Amino acid sequence: MLQQTDKQEESYSQAHKPASEFETRTEYLDHELQIMKPRRWGLNLPGRDFRFEMEDFVPAIAGTIGISVMYSAVMTAWATGLTAKWPGVNLGAEWIIEVVRVEMLIPALLFCIIGSGFLNPRANLAGNHGPMIPLIGSIALAGAHPLALAALVCVFGLLLSYFKGGSRLVNLTSQGVAGGLLAFLGFMGAKGQITSLFSWAGGLQDKHELTYSLSYVALAIFAVNIVLYAFLAKIGKRWLAIPACSIVAVALALALGAGVDLQFTTAPGLPNMNPWYWWGSTETGWQLGIPNVSHFIASLPWAILAVAMWSPDFLGHRIFQELNYPKNTDKVLMDVDDTMTCCSLRQFTGTFFGGGNITSSWGTYMIPAAIAKRPIPAGAILLGILCIVIATVGYPMDVAVWQPVMSCALLVGVFLPLLEAGLQMVKSSNDTNSAGICIFAALVTNPVLAWAITMFLDNNGLIGDKERAKRLSFTDRIIIPAGAVIVCTLAMAAVGMLPGIPAIL
C-alpha cells in the first residue's frame, strides 16, 4: 500500500520511462497519459510536466488545415452578408485574407501556445464554431456587429463556465443521447464533404474547357483513401490518416489533371493588428465603426444561440477522449468549464484585434489528438507555431484550403471518427432507443435542439434507461434539462431556426 501511494505521488518527470522500455508504442503513449498531472492555471513546462512526441504533429497539422478552412469560410460569409446589408461596405478578397491572418496569429499565440500549452493543458484549444458558419450571413443581415456579438458571447460563456453549467450538462447526457448526437454529426459531416468534393471535381470542366466532367477525380480520391484509411485502422495507425490521406489526395488530384485549380495567391506578410484600424472608423477595417446599442440588441439572440450550442460540441470532444484514452487518465481529459472560459476570452480577444471568428472547442485538433493518444499541451504548442508560420508565409494557406485537402482532412480526421465513436457508444437497447430519437429529432430540427429534447426525455425515463431516471435529483431531471430546452427553443425561434416558423426578430 505504501509503495502504491508513493507511486501515485510521483511527479510526471519521476514516473516517465523511455519508449524503449515498452513493448509497443501504444503502451508507451498509454503510460504517458496515465502519469501526467497537468497544473490547472499554473506553469506547465516541457520535460517537467509533458513531452513532445512525433504523434503531436498529427493533431497540430490537422488542426491547422481545419482552422484555415473554417476561418476562410467564416470571413467569406461575413463579407458577403455585410456587403449585402450595408451598401457602403466593400469587403473583398484581400480583406478576407487579412482577417484570417489576424485570427491565426493572435489567438494562436495567446490561447494555443500560452493558454492550452503552458497555463492550462486541460482546456481544449478554442477553435471555430462550425455549426454557426451557415448562419453568419443571417447574422450580418439581422444587423449584428461582430464586436458586439463577441462581447456578448464572452459574457454568457464566462457566466456558464463560472457556474459549472457546461460540465453539469455534459454529465446529464446519457451514452445513448451522446452516441446518437455523434453519429448524426459524423454522418451529416461526411455526407457534406463527399458532396463538396464531387461538386468541386464536376465544376472543373469549364476551367479545362472540356466536354466532360472531372468527377472521376473525386471518385478516385475517395476510393484510394477508403482503402488507405481501412489499412491504417487495421495496423493501429489511424492517427496518421489526416496527413497520409491529404498527401494522397493532392498527388491524385495533380496526377489526374485537376492541378489547374490550385493557385498560390496568398503572399507573405503580416496583417494590421491595431484594433482602432478595424473598429474605429467606417472607412477602414470592417468599415462598421464602434458598435452601438442597436448592434448589441441585434446580436443578442445569436450570442445566446452560440453559447447554447457549446455544450453538445464540448460533449463530443470530451467523450472522444474517453473512448480513446486508457483507464486512469482523468487528469488529462479536457475540462469542459475551463475550455468554456478559454473560448469566451478568446472570442472577445480575437475579435477585438480585428477577427470575426465565432469560437468553440477545437474539434479538428481534439479528435485527431485523441486518436493519436496524445494529451493537449505539446500538440497545442506545435499547432500555434504552425498557425503563426502559415499565416506569415501565406502560400501554405492556399494548399490547406484546396478542396481535395480540405475534404479529405475533415472526412478522415473528424467526421468518420465521430461516426465511429457514436456507433461505439450505442451498446444496449436502451441506448439504441435514445440514440434513434436523438437522430430523428436532429433530422427534423437541428442537432442542438435534438440534444436538449432527448436529454430531457431520457433523464425523465420517457426514453432510454428508466432506472437511470430514478437515480437523478429533481434538478437534474426537470430543472436543468427543461431549462436547456427552453433556452435553445427561444434562441432558435428568435433567429428563425425552427422549421416552418418565421423568425421572431
UniProtKB/TrEMBL annotation:
<dbReference type="Pfam" id="PF11840">
    <property type="entry name" value="DUF3360"/>
</dbReference>
<feature type="transmembrane region" description="Helical">
    <location>
        <begin position="239"/>
        <end position="260"/>
    </location>
</feature>
<feature type="compositionally biased region" description="Basic and acidic residues">
    <location>
        <begin position="1"/>
        <end position="10"/>
    </location>
</feature>
<protein>
    <recommendedName>
        <fullName>DUF3360 family protein</fullName>
    </recommendedName>
</protein>
<dbReference type="InterPro" id="IPR021794">
    <property type="entry name" value="DUF3360"/>
</dbReference>
<feature type="transmembrane region" description="Helical">
    <location>
        <begin position="139"/>
        <end position="162"/>
    </location>
</feature>
<feature type="transmembrane region" description="Helical">
    <location>
        <begin position="401"/>
        <end position="423"/>
    </location>
</feature>
<feature type="transmembrane region" description="Helical">
    <location>
        <begin position="210"/>
        <end position="232"/>
    </location>
</feature>
<keyword id="KW-0812">Transmembrane</keyword>
<feature type="transmembrane region" description="Helical">
    <location>
        <begin position="169"/>
        <end position="190"/>
    </location>
</feature>
<keyword id="KW-1133">Transmembrane helix</keyword>
<feature type="transmembrane region" description="Helical">
    <location>
        <begin position="477"/>
        <end position="498"/>
    </location>
</feature>
<keyword id="KW-0472">Membrane</keyword>
<feature type="transmembrane region" description="Helical">
    <location>
        <begin position="57"/>
        <end position="78"/>
    </location>
</feature>
<feature type="transmembrane region" description="Helical">
    <location>
        <begin position="293"/>
        <end position="311"/>
    </location>
</feature>
<feature type="transmembrane region" description="Helical">
    <location>
        <begin position="376"/>
        <end position="395"/>
    </location>
</feature>
<feature type="region of interest" description="Disordered">
    <location>
        <begin position="1"/>
        <end position="21"/>
    </location>
</feature>
<feature type="transmembrane region" description="Helical">
    <location>
        <begin position="435"/>
        <end position="457"/>
    </location>
</feature>
